Amino acid sequence: MAFSPQSSALPTGSLRKVHHIALNVRDINASRHFYGNILGLHELTGDEVPSTFVPSVTAGKLANFITPDGTAINLFWKPELLPPAPDPDQAFTRAHHLAFDIAPELFDQAVAVLCHHQVPINSGPVSRPTGRGIYFYDPDGFIIELRCNLLSA
After folding, report:
1. Out of 75, 100, 108, 148, which could bridge 104 as a Cys pair, Cβ 3.0 to 4.6 Å?
2. SS (H, E, C) 72-101
3. What is the pLDDT of residue 86?
4. What domains can be seen in the chain, in order of their start residue?
5. How many CB atoms sit inside 10 A of residue 56's CB?
6. Are 65 and 36 in contact (CB under 8 A)?
7. Where are the alpha helices (DSSP H) in the chain?
8. Rounded to whole angstroms, how far apart are CA atoms 107 and 93?
9. Spatial distance between the Cα atoms of 75 and 8, rounded to a whole number of angstroms
């Protein structure tokens, strides 16, 4: 479809999915532990790492994770980042939060894992007509949401 100067937006459905999410992190090891060992995302290693990222991964300046639906999360080590404000509700980026969908039958287990690891909780768990959610902070103060749809009756 050709661009029309009369149109101010891409046609609905042009954007197919989230391709990747890039986050700046102060402590790459704490973030790798959080995303890999606590949230259980697969970290790309060896031949899985895209060739353009190999030098940065080898230098310890980048870690790549992949979600089950294929969304990549790239963590860029930026040790000079200012720490988040003492009040974690004062975000230090323009992004508000990153949300992951989880099967309803795993939601309570996920909350227990967060509590076990003493992950700081922003709010929740909450129940809404659309499902349940919990908001919490990664090691850099970025808000993460785990959410699930309601169980089917």
Report:
1. 148
2. EEEEEECCCCCCCCCCCCCCCCCCCEEEEE
3. 66
4. 18-80 (3.10.180.10), 96-153 (3.10.180.10)
5. 16
6. yes
7. 28-32, 54-58, 107-116
8. 27
9. 33
Q: List the Cα angle 24/145/30 in 5-degree steps.
A: 40
Sign of the CA dihedral with 107 first, then 113, 116, and 119 last = negative
Cβ contact 135:123 at 8 Å: yes
The CA–CA distances, whole Å, from 56 to 13, 41, 67, 68, 150 equal 34, 20, 21, 24, 41
Using an 8 Å Cβ cutoff, are 121 and 135 in contact?
yes
Nearest to 145 by CA among 111, 94, 109: 111
